[in-house]
TrEMBL record:
Organism listed in the record: Streptomyces griseoviridis
Subunit organization: Homotetramer.
Domain (Enoyl reductase (ER)): residue spans on this chain: 7-292
A GO term for molecular function: zinc ion binding
Protein name, entry field: Oxidoreductase
Primary localisation category: cytoplasm
Keywords, in A-Z order: Cytoplasm, NADP, RNA-binding
Amino acid sequence: MSFAEFGGPDVLRVIEAEEPRPGPGRIRVAVRAAGVNPVDWRIREGQRLSARPVELPSGVGLDAAGVVDEIGEGVEGVAVGDHVFGKGIDTYAEYAVLTAWAPMPEGLTFEEAAGYPSVTETALRVLRECEVRPGQTLLVSGASGGVGSAVLQIARDRGVTVIGTAGPANQDYLRGLGALATTYGEGWTERVRRLGRVDAALDLAGSGVIRDLVELTGDPRKVVSIADLGAPGLGVRFSGTAGSVPDALAEAAALVARGKLRIPVERTYPLTGAAAAHIDSRAGHARGRRVIVP
C-alpha cells in the first residue's frame, strides 16, 4: 500500500513493490495483520507531525503482527518462524520490517495482536504524563477507541477510578471495562461532575473539549491530549512523541497474560479496503481496534 501525494483516502494505491530487507537490529515479518491508527491517515493527509519525515511515494502503517521470516545483523532472541507483534515501517503490506517487537502474547490472534503496539505505548505514556495516582479519578474523553480501551484497563489495574465519555452505543462497553460512563454532547461536563471529582484528564478524540477538561481538573497541567494540535495554546501538553516501544510491548504482554488487558477488534479490512479503514478511523466512534489483513 502506497501514496504518491498527500490527500484524501483516494490517494492510496495497492502496488507491487520490492520486498523490504531488515538492516542491523531489525527483523522482517510476513504480515498477518496491521493495526490502523489515526497517525496513519494524518501522515497521508500531510499533517505536520513529530514523526519521521515523509518522503513520497510513501508506504503506510506502523503496527503489525506476523511471522518472522528474516533477521537482521546483530539481532538475538528471535528465530525465523516466531510469531511476534510490534512496530515498524510500512506495515500495510505482505512483508514489513519491524524496529521493535516482542513475542505475541499467548491467546491472542494475529488480528488482535496487531492492534496493541501503538495504542499500548500511547496509553502507558499519557498515563505517565498526566501523573494520575492510585485512588485518584481520571477523565478520559473519547474512551471507547483503541487507546481509550487500553487506558481504562491499565488505569483500573493501577487503582485509578476512571470516568469515560463515548457515544450512547458504547456506554455498556465502557462499563464493561470498569469505567464510570457518560455520553458527550450538551451538558456533558455536568454529567461528569455528578460522577465525581476529576483529578486528571485525557483528550483522546480531539473533539474541541480542551477548555472543558481544564475547567474540570482546575489545572491545564493535569490535562494531556493526543489529538488536538491546538492544546499547547491553552497550556495543555500535546503528547505526540513515542516512549520505549519494547518496554510497552513487554508490559502489554504481561497485562494480557494476567487477564488485565484485552482490546477487541471492531472490524478487519483487506488491503484493498485501506481507504475505507482510514475513513472509518477518521470518523471515530470505534469500539476497540480496526485492522488491515493483507
